[in-house]
């Protein structure tokens, strides 16, 4: 009886631990979509416990970091290249370190631990003139030198910071989920003003003349100038997750209902609005060589011309939440829960290669 | 199905309470407490029947007729089962009455944990799921993101307090203590040295606090707030029946010198 009852208790504990752990996130499988970036030679992909460097020519893996899986690391944020040749990426796992890697070899240059009560990294940092501005989920903007040491006191902005800062002129614009866009003076970041946009801001601001455009969960695109004044330039039918993109006097944005909108900034009139029926667009759009690329949540990549006409549509697979990016002549897209983690397409929509992390 | 009947209603109820409280700092923790009170109120009759069922089963272990049939039919399991069923029927005891409320707790605990994690949206994918979980009447734009601060805790992370450079898991200790107190109070005294039920209860009163303490140590502190609230309400509910075994809290306590019947 004793053995039997102990067995039941152990079974109950195991069941509870398994079920609760399943919601808390595994050690190697990413519980969020992948962040990625690229330079002229390589793509850099944050994928679960690893960061991968992938050869743009053929999709082959060049290196992975760390060499062996570490259950405390979880990479969501897009890796960022600095002017002095470092690759920066932060972990959102129980180890909150911010890492500097050698982009050629994947070797660790340094790791800033960000232990204790500091949060994880969902946002990519911004490297500017040898200073690293790193927004954290704990609501602080950390300011580091190129060796990962805090060179100035962290600035408490509030809310969770999920997107990279945007620099424009003398100011840094930092979006927060607490509904505020923060405008910091680069010379004195502690001196900042904040603008309430009425909804969470999950993505970066888009630089424009004397200010930025920013989208939010208030389903609006808002123009905010350096002095903190704001004006709504467009209202969408649903939340806008991705950052708007700017091409001269035209602003493009997409919402969670799958609407892609072209807005003429001269008169703030809609040029065109094309809906992807029953689909959602989470990531930002990409404007490249006269075409607009959109990744649909259902797993397709579409290319539109400047008049909103569909040029091509390709089924990538899985679900796509992140924005496509351009690298050399390729368009890269990172599907989630697909057979592969990264795919490259040419401008005509022909798949060049796919990358699948080794198990 | 799990999503539709457990996660969505629970998440929306939590968010509705949070919004009704003004969705400011500390309000999500308060929402979890009120949610637990609500769940406890709904399951009050079940918990009462659990207590009653456990008491009846325990008393049965000390019953002379019950002990006699255990001895008499020790080598005939089929006959023993028949006799046991006869006694259950005669005394109107449901042997499963004490299990049902515990079983009901499972989906609540797991569903609550998933709802807390989703509501707090620590990652963008969670946020997207949250947006799609919310019923149309919810004020999503204003509620999101939730404020995860409650007292000194971040409800989305395991709790600890830094004292002299050490991270002390105070909440995990409180969870273990309250679970221990609750299980000891509800464990009636037994005089039968071969009382298997009492032995199992005794093991449970050690294992459960350790297990729930471990959960509180490793998972989001929001779940620990649920455990503590639920335990305290359980203690109050049991104390209100006037049958709480307070002596059982002390070492060597909980053993009567004379039995029943």
What does the model show?
The complex is a heterodimer of chains A (359) and B (261). Chain A is mainly beta and 359 residues long. Chain A is 6% helix and 45% strand. Chain A has one helix spanning 2-24, and strands at 35-38, 42-47, 50-55, 61-65, 80-81, 87-90, 98-101, 108-112, 126-128, 131-135, 140-145, 150-156, 166-168, 171-175, 180-185, 188-196, 206-208, 211-215, 220-225, 230-235, 245-247, 250-254, 259-264, 269-275, 286-288, 291-295, 300-304, 310-315, 319-320, 325-327, 330-333, 335-336, 342-345, 351-355. Chain A has a 4-stranded antiparallel β-sheet, with no helix packed on it. Chain A has a 4-stranded antiparallel β-sheet with strand order 5-6-7-8, with no helix packed on it. A 4-stranded antiparallel β-sheet of chain A has the order 9-10-11-12, with no helix packed on it. Chain A is globular. Mean pLDDT of chain A is 92; it is low at 22-28. Chain B has 261 residues and is mostly helical. Chain B has one domain (2-249). Chain B has 11 helices and 4 strands. A two-stranded antiparallel ribbon of chain B has the order 1-2. In chain B, strands 3-4 form a two-stranded antiparallel ribbon. The longest helix of chain B is centred in the last third of the chain and has 23 residues, at 196-218. Chain B is elongated and about 70 Å long.
Keywords:
heterodimer; A: 359 residues; mainly beta; 1 helix; 6% helix; globular; B: 261 residues; mainly alpha; two-stranded antiparallel sheet; 11 helices; 4 strands; elongated; disordered C terminus
Mean pLDDT of chain A: 92
Question: How many whole angstroms does the radius of gyration of chain A measure?
Answer: 21 Å
The quaternary structure here is: heterodimer
Low-confidence stretches of chain A: 22-28
Write down how many β-strands of chain A occur, each being a DSSP E stretch of 2 or more residues: 34
Calculate the terminal CA-CA distance of chain A, rounded to whole Å.
43 Å
Shape of chain A: globular
Average pLDDT rating of chain B:
82
Number of separate domains of chain B: 1
Number of helices of chain B: 11
Separate helix tally of chain A: 1
- β-sheet strand percentage of chain B: under 5%
State the order of secondary-structure elements of chain B, H for helix, E for strand.
HHHHHHHHEEEEHHH
